[in-house]
Amino acid sequence: MARLQSSLFRLLLDAAPDATVIVDESATIVLANAQVANVLGWSQDELVGQHIEVLVPDKLREVHQERRTGFLGAPMARPMGVGRNLFARHKDGHEVPVEISLSPLETDSGVLVTASVRDISDRLRIEEEATRMREEIIATVSHELRTPLTSIIGYAELLADLDDTELGPRARGILEVIRRNAARELRLVDDLLTMASLDEERLQITLAPVDLLEVVQRVVVDHAPGARDAQIEVRFEGDSVRPVYGDFIRLVQVVENLLTNALKFTGPGGVVTMRVSDAGSMALVEVADTGAGVAPEEVPKIFQRLYRGSDAVASQAQGAGLGLPIAQKIVHAHGGRIDVTSEMGIGTVFRVHVPYATSRPSRSLG
Description:
The structure is a single chain. By secondary structure, the protein is an alpha+beta fold. It has 3 domains: about 1-120, PAS domain (Beta-Lactamase, 2-Layer Sandwich); about 125-200, Helix Hairpins (Orthogonal Bundle), CATH 1.10.287; about 205-365, Histidine kinase-like ATPase, C-terminal domain (Heat Shock Protein 90, 2-Layer Sandwich). The protein contains 10 helices and 14 strands. Helix 6 crosses helix 10 (about 325-335), helix 7 packs parallel to helix 8 (about 250-265) and helix 8 runs antiparallel to helix 10.
């Protein structure tokens, strides 16, 4: 019976889809399945009796020994996918990207550890190809959509400069509709491109000392005409604060998204207040509006991508639900935080905390 059980165990081990080795407490391989030949180039007989480090790249052996000792000190199961950038050493010496699961088993003769090794070379190649195709699509979208939209806006602005003898009131009104909608589409394209870059964690954030007062004042001035047209008062309250450590353009984008959002959900006669103040180790930007507010159950969702609150849907407010998620990701990339409080019928306040500048030189983060 024992021989039969041993035979069945070996058959089951060989049937496993991943290369599998069983190691004792001295880190010696006591069993290996047939897949080790396909994945790592070793036969079962060649591996049995060898030290587990024979499967570890030379440059990683010292670190692996330390981790192995720590693992055996408190053995516990580790599933596939835990730990990134893992590599195994093929018999011919080249490195194989892998995922590894560990399953310890306490026996009368000590702890045995089953290590399943999965070759992820094909998966990584597919992911790299998918990334390349995605970048090509983004580049195409950037060129094929942004270029004509920019041209439309430019020519609309040139036409708007014509005097009243060349452009009548009705035509001027139609032209403004064209310009406004083209600008809206351009913002949407820019938001989609920004979100794609953030998803890939390749958005360039160039860090340098930035004056937050200048950032907020610029945004307020840029949106003053639109606020007047909407009959909304925009107030600015700024204390003198030390420079923050950030990317001027990206911080403008954050504040602009928050102000645009506030104006969108504040009715005529309402007020949006922009504040800059000191908050200890960070500078604070607040964007407070007197809009209808956000329902308590919707507050935790407003930073979700493409999420649009019930008020936005009911009022058919413009927007794709990207502005707030983009603002949050940019703030987090700066090492800051953003939060929101809202009260129905009273209004909403967004608070952005950005770390102050230090003596560190500016650099670019992916």
